[in-house]
Please model this.
Amino acid sequence: MTTVSFPGFGIGEFTMNPRAFSFTIFGRLIEVHWYGILIAIGFLLAIFYAAWRSRQEGIILDDLLDIGIFTIIFGIVGARLYYVLTYGVSNFVERVGRGDAAKVDIWKTFVNLIATWEGGLAIYGGVIAGTITIYFVCRRKKINPLRAFDAIAPGVMLGQIIGRWGNFINGEAYGYEVAAGSPLYVFRMGLLPNIDSATVMHYYHPTFLYESAWNLLGFILINFLYKNKKFDGQIALSYFTWYGFGRMFIEGLRTDSLYVGVFRISQVVGFVCFVAGAALIVRGLLKAKKAAYEAADYEPVYPRFKKRANPESAPVPGDGAGETGTAGKLDVTGSPDEKGSEVEDSRAEPDSRQKEKGGLTGEDRQEVQGNGDNN
Model:
């Protein structure tokens, strides 16, 4: 049981039970915890979101479900493996006996290694394993992996928003005590039992709340960005950049960080995600801008060529003054001299004064008259 309060928001003490319900199968007690329920809800919401987005990315639902099944399985394995390796495999080993005669209990050790129902899932491990899985499944199915990443990444963020509340119910993943003069003092969370006492309530940074709120804001912004994305992979990179930046700071407040030497692993990974993601976004936007510039229509500089580039505004011989026609749509791929002469020739009409002076031969007059009849 965990007792919690948020005095800064006027919320007094209340008690939560991490266990949602339990039942018995073949004489064995099965306990279902809120943490597992919330993780499952997060997975389902992520799949529903990805299914919605996959339509505009050209990915059929059957392929997306295949991607989702493999990603969930290997994502959980990766999240647990990341946690075990960084926390230390030796902490999960069970031994029988004492001293030099002690032997490893293989079965109990194995159970400890896979005991995700007791907590111990590292989100970065899940994201890394999930990313690798998505890439290979997409290659197998001949799907553009970048489009799949774009459709799935915001869904992962949605799952994180929900999943962090499982940490809250378990009374874990919180930060240091909040100083009275801190601008974050209003967010302080009273917790009992806690890292400092089993009988006295202390007030800590609710880092689960910080991360959930940060991801919610990022989810909203990324969805606004989605409709105007400039290149495949931009949405996924935006997720990594946004999440990495926030996690880099939030992790510094936590009391249960995993370390390599003096470095908090999640803080370092968050920094790398932020820097690499931001650099790749800038690179992608520049390439997209260059491609759009090269694909843009040629804009002529001189007035003579502007007439040629916008032929619909020019009157077509035989149609009457101020009228336009399909015959005025000229090819603009030739050289300026050739095309300029075509425009001038296409507008040539027999002038009444030239007729009077005999400036045109009979054959010319016949040809001009014939053109006027055809138009």
About this structure: The longest helix spans residues 265-295. The chain has two domains: 2-295, 303-374.
